[in-house]
Amino acid sequence: MIGKHCILELCECNSVKLDDEAFIRTTIQMASKVAGAQLLNLITHKFVPQGVTGLALLAESHISIHTWPESGYAAVDVFTCGDQTMPDKACQLLVEELQSKRHSLKTLRRDTPVMISNALIN
Amino acid sequence: MIGKHCILELCECNSVKLDDEAFIRTTIQMASKVAGAQLLNLITHKFVPQGVTGLALLAESHISIHTWPESGYAAVDVFTCGDQTMPDKACQLLVEELQSKRHSLKTLRRDTPVMISNALIN
């Protein structure tokens, strides 16, 4: 398996935090750390009138967060490669830090087409 | 629906192109354009001894590419929001530009948990 890709939908989050670019940056840094990943670069963008996007380039792939404060919603991806990383821990941290009261987590294995016939493992 | 997330596995690609950071940058810029998306920021990283990661921050979400030249493989995500973008066109361009002879494309809808019970639409 090349990697594990967690697709996380966070609902009923704290809207103030979802719209706080500095908070999103710090939270992505924390998420990288608890996942056991190496953060190589991090870019964020604050949209007008609301919303933040954060993209973390990891040695082991990436974390992305897109927020819709007006809906209390964030779309998160945590994609990590290798056996040493724990993307589930990053997801759990994001649920807690963004104070999501309702979430959905799906995990895909990323691999060559021959290997992904059973791509949805959770 | 918040957005459409294309998960693309590219196999049997041109390994030289997969390892060419400048080529990956240019290709992501082209992919953003054909998708009808607005590219706000683009970061890339060249790994040693091989491999490139590219992350594009779009006004409409993101594009990510992670390459394994030694396997001829690239893991691609094209996540766009709104009705005006065409992530499928970006995927088709990436298949062609990276000269993938075999690929797999899955499309997820991204939305709040209530709405994603039928998340896999393709």
How many distinct beta strands of chain A? 6
Q: Roughly what fraction of the amino acids of chain A lie in strands?
A: 35-45%
Under CATH at level 1, the class of chain A stands as Alpha Beta
Q: What's the overall geometry of chain A?
A: globular
**SS field, number of helical segments of chain A:** 3
Name the chain pair with the biggest interface and residue counts per chain.
Answer: A-B, 39 and 39 residues
> Mean pLDDT of chain A, rounded to whole units?
92
Task: Assign the CATH topology of chain A.
Answer: S-adenosylmethionine decarboxylase
Based on the structure, what is the oligomeric state of the protein chains? homodimer
Q: Give me the secondary-structure category of chain A.
A: alpha+beta
Series of H and E elements of chain A: EHHEEEEHE
Which CATH architecture of chain A would you pick?
4-Layer Sandwich
Spans where pLDDT lies below 50 across 5 or more residues of chain A: 116-122
**Radius of gyration over C-alpha positions of chain A, nearest whole angstrom:** 14 Å
CATH 4th-level superfamily of chain A: S-adenosylmethionine decarboxylase
The number of domains of chain A: 1
* Major β-sheet strand ordering of chain A: 2-3-4-5-1-6
- Termini gap of chain A: 15 Å
As a percent range, the share of helical residues of chain A equals 10-25%
Modified residues (Pyruvic acid (Ser)) (chains A, B): 61
Subunit structure (chains A, B): Heterotetramer of two alpha and two beta chains arranged as a dimer of alpha/beta heterodimers.
Active site (chains A, B): 61 (schiff-base intermediate with substrate), 66 (proton acceptor), 81 (proton donor)
Keywords (chains A, B): Autocatalytic cleavage, Decarboxylase, Lyase, Polyamine biosynthesis, Pyruvate, S-adenosyl-L-methionine, Schiff base, Spermidine biosynthesis, Zymogen
